[in-house]
Amino acid sequence: FERIGFIQYPAAAAEADKMFEAALEAGANDVVSDEEFHEIETLPDDLAAVTDALEKQFGTPSASRLDWKPTVKTEINDVETAKKFLEFIDALEEDDDVQHVYHNAEIAADVMAQLEQE
């Protein structure tokens, strides 16, 4: 895992192209946008400066924090292992003492499709 700065805005805050351009101009490393969110990645030391620059244009982000990003992913290719893994993650997230859960698992698309049908 590597330490990163993480900033998140709801998708309604701006169009993807506008958020991408503004974030890169502010010093961000990467921007990923989907239907729900704009997720901006920065170097840890740049988090405050990028957050300040984006707040001036888009208002307060829904999240701005130091985070962990996996450098190596581990793929889960079978349904039983995926079920156990997701149950484990759910149990960790339900614990009041746990603030964030980080993992490097990537569940294969066909396995996720099977899980969603159950």
Tags for this model:
118 residues; elongated; 4-stranded antiparallel β-sheet; 6 strands; two-stranded parallel ribbon; 4 helices; alpha+beta; 41% helix
Describe this structure in words.
It is a single chain. It is built from four helices and six strands, in the order E-H-E-E-H-E-E-H-E-H. By secondary structure, the protein is α+β, with helices and mostly antiparallel strands. The protein has a four-stranded antiparallel beta sheet with strand order 2-3-1-4, with helices on one face. A hairpin with a 3-residue loop joins strand 2 and strand 3. It is elongated and about 45 Å long.
Chain-wise SSE layout:
Layout: E1 2-10, H1 16-26, E2 30-33, E3 37-42, H2 47-58, E4 63-69, E5 74-76, H3 79-94, E6 105-107, H4 109-117
Parallel strand pairs: 5-6
Antiparallel strand pairs: 1-3, 1-4, 2-3
Task: Summarize model confidence as the mean pLDDT.
Answer: 93
Strand segment count: 6
Question: Mind summarizing the main beta sheet?
Answer: 4 strands, antiparallel
Distance between the termini: 32 Å
How would you describe the shape? elongated
Please give the share of residues in helix.
40-55%
Decide which structural class fits the backbone.
Answer: alpha+beta
Computed CA radius of gyration, to the nearest angstrom: 17 Å
Oligomer: single chain
User: Strand sequence of the main sheet, in spatial order?
Assistant: 2-3-1-4
Low-confidence stretches: none
SSE order in H/E notation? EHEEHEEHEH
Helix segment tally: 4
Strand content: 25-35%
